Amino acid sequence: MRFGLTIGEYYPVDSPVHALDPRVKILLVLVFTIAVFAVVNFSGLTAAAALIVGVALVSRVPIRLAVKGVRPLLYLLALTFIIHLFTGAKPWIELGPLHISVPGARSGALVGIRLVILVVGAAFLTLTSTPIELTDAIESLLAPLKKVRVPAHEIAMMMTIALRFIPTLAAETDKIVKAQASRGARFESSNPVTRARSFIPVLVPLFLSVFRRADELAEAMEARAYRGGEGRTRMRRLEMKGRDVLTLISATAVFAGLAWFGRLPLV
Fold first, then answer.
1. How far apart (Å, rounded) are the C-alpha atoms in residues 109 and 115?
2. By the 8 A CB rule, do 134 and 23 touch?
3. Which position has the higher pLDDT, 46 or 206?
4. What is the pTM of this model?
5. 104-113, long-range: CB < 8 A, 24+ apart
6. Contact 87/104 with Cβ under 8 angstroms?
7. 3-class DSSP state for residue 42?
8. Weakest-pLDDT range from 139-148, 157-166, 185-194
9. Fewest CB within a 10 Å sphere: which of 4, 90, 113, 160?
């Protein structure tokens, strides 16, 4: 069993996307998310998927790395589709008290494809940005909140550490699952109750590993005299260049066009 998570992973390569200001990439992910949620037809989702393929080509990041993060969501996507399948207004097939409808199937497919596009698109943010870049970018975007005593640096640090440890904990979980499987745990059983019981022995060592890593990280930060963002300096400061501004404006315009196209009465 593999826990293929790409959130938090970084793919080191030279590309125009990697060279962008991380603040621009965060803002574009937010705008892209809003645009995809505004899409209500399959043509718009197809255009959004084409944009992601274009980003993969420009960033030189294998798209399989981003798609790999969808695997843990397959059960959620299947459940979402089934729920929508039986909630449509116009029944197509009646199976006793259950009514399968074409509008419900269409709505479930739209929601599932939309979630896949959002997960794959968001994966490129961490695949093309280092944890340090993300920390500085989030802190910079939250800087105006410092005037109302919001700890922007601490919030940015916590968010970045959480992103950074997602793939680490996924690898740790995979290691524990393999160890338990070698001892007879039935993770691949067709019985959902048996599979759920098999994961109980995984939780205890996983939580112990999480607390151990958190304690080690806290000690490492204290050993390096970390005392929060007060008086903290940076070797590399973020600078918004002309290409970053041009990319932000042009990409925002493209996403706005996507949202408009995705609301047309098309297929």
1. 10
2. no
3. 46
4. 0.76
5. 105/81, 108/80, 108/81, 108/82, 108/83, 108/84, 109/42, 109/81, 110/40, 110/41, 110/42, 110/45, 111/80, 111/81, 111/84, 112/77, 112/80, 112/81, 113/42, 113/45
6. yes
7. helix
8. 185-194
9. 90
> What pLDDT sits at residue 26?
93
Burial classification of residue 45, based on how many CB atoms lie within 10 Å of its CB (0-12 exposed, 13-18 middle, 19 or more buried): buried
Q: Retrieve residue 264's tokens.
A: 């047309």
Element (H, E) at 95: strand 91-95
Strand partners of residue 98? 95
Is the pLDDT at 5 greater than 60, yes or no? no
| Domains in the chain: boundaries | 1-129+237-267, 151-232
Would you say how long the chain is, in residues?
267
